[in-house]
């Protein structure tokens, strides 16, 4: 289905890598770097296909990952034991995070963007296509270097003071859409960011990041949290 819903955007020039390909939503024009990201966007924003439902409360979701997040936040699971090392995890999501970073972490890490890859060949190809052959944009104000134009444009707002995203509740303005989304979580009253060590919850990701520093030892990266459905439900009220 996705092939009929996107337009391909590629950098000009026959020698450009296919990794520069972009995928655009034909309905709203959103540009995504991966088909999977565009597919999730399209289903969430432009369909009414609620294919996944919570067995405990009946709430319906368009994306399976949103159902998983809902289950973790709203319906307590019993502790789960890792079948590799025997560690007890609070729930299935904590088990997934633990196993991903403790047992199944890709061996090779990119020195530029820190993405991890399975083989040395994958790493070499990634560095070549994603970093060495890409044109760089350098900020004349502070000297910071960017490989993606949209990252460079977002960065420049720091120097220009441009804040194009405004909160519809309190009118506070932000430089990026992600900053606005994190701010809106304060208005929802939801505390979806939960510390994987002590269970303390926070309304914003920054609060959890700061809190985790009080825990000693090496901690895995925070899992990705999908908040679009929470904000959408809040804006409907």
UniProtKB/TrEMBL annotation:
Using the record for this protein, list the coiled-coil segments as residue ranges, or answer none: none
Q: Where does the C2H2-type domain lie?
A: 52-79, 80-108, 108-136, 137-164, 165-192, 193-220
UniProt KW keywords: DNA-binding, Metal-binding, Nucleus, Repeat, Transcription, Transcription regulation, Zinc, Zinc-finger
Matching Gene3D superfamilies, A to Z?
A: Classic Zinc Finger (3.30.160.60)
Q: Which GO terms describe its cellular component?
A: nucleus
Q: Which Gene Ontology MF annotations are present?
A: DNA-binding transcription factor activity, RNA polymerase II-specific; double-stranded DNA binding; sequence-specific DNA binding; zinc ion binding
Where in the cell is the protein located? Nucleus
The record's SMART domains line, in alphabetical order, gives: ZnF_C2H2
The UniProt entry, under PANTHER family, shows: TRANSCRIPTION FACTOR (TFIIIA), PUTATIVE (AFU_ORTHOLOGUE AFUA_1G05150)-RELATED, ZINC FINGER PROTEIN
Question: Which family does the record assign?
Answer: Belongs to the krueppel C2H2-type zinc-finger protein family.
Task: List the protein's name.
Answer: Zinc finger protein OZF-like
Q: Which organism is it from?
A: Bombus terrestris
- Source organism lineage? Eukaryota, Metazoa, Ecdysozoa, Arthropoda, Hexapoda
